[in-house]
């Protein structure tokens, strides 16, 4: 799976979860500041990512993810 395809999928997931299909999401978009994702919404998003990509994301790895680019890079490495 290409990085572009991964990013497209995670962008769609976060837009669906937030019920905001009009959002513009870039790799620099931060989860908390730009999207207003709280800790509960973040965990729901991580669960969606785990289901979508068929992998488990440990909590300690999530702590290092502050923007969509961090998630993209993490998933790209894990999926290779």
TrEMBL record:
Domain Carrier: 4-79
Gene Ontology molecular function: acyl binding; acyl carrier activity
Pfam families (UniProt xref): PP-binding (PF00550)
Name of the featured protein: Acyl carrier protein
Cross-referenced HAMAP family: Acyl_carrier (MF_01217)
InterPro entries per record: ACP, ACP-like_sf, PP-bd_ACP
Pathways involved: Lipid metabolism; fatty acid biosynthesis
Main location as per UniProt: cytoplasm
GO annotation, cellular component aspect: cytosol; membrane
Gene Ontology biological-process entries: lipid A biosynthetic process
Protein purpose: Carrier of the growing fatty acid chain in fatty acid biosynthesis.
Compartments where found: Cytoplasm
Entry-linked Gene3D superfamilies: ACP-like
Gene, per the UniProt record: acpP
Residues the record lists as O-(pantetheine 4'-phosphoryl)serine modifications: 39
Modification(s) after translation: 4'-phosphopantetheine is transferred from CoA to a specific serine of apo-ACP by AcpS. This modification is essential for activity because fatty acids are bound in thioester linkage to the sulfhydryl of the prosthetic group.
PROSITE patterns according to UniProt: CARRIER (PS50075)
Protein family according to the UniProt entry: Belongs to the acyl carrier protein (ACP) family.
Entry keyword set: Cytoplasm, Fatty acid biosynthesis, Fatty acid metabolism, Lipid biosynthesis, Lipid metabolism, Phosphopantetheine, Phosphoprotein
Keyword Lipid biosynthesis recorded: yes
């Amino acid at each position: 799976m290409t990085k572009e395809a991964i990013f497209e999928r995670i962008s769609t997931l976060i837009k669906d979860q937030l019920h905001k299909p009009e959002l513009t999401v870039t790799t620099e978009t931060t989860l908390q500041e730009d999207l207003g994702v709280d800790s509960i919404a973040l965990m729901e998003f991580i669960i969606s990512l785990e289901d979508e990509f068929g992998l488990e994301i440990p909590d300690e790895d999530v702590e290092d993810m502050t923007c969509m680019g961090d998630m993209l890079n993490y998933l790209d490495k894990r999926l290779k």
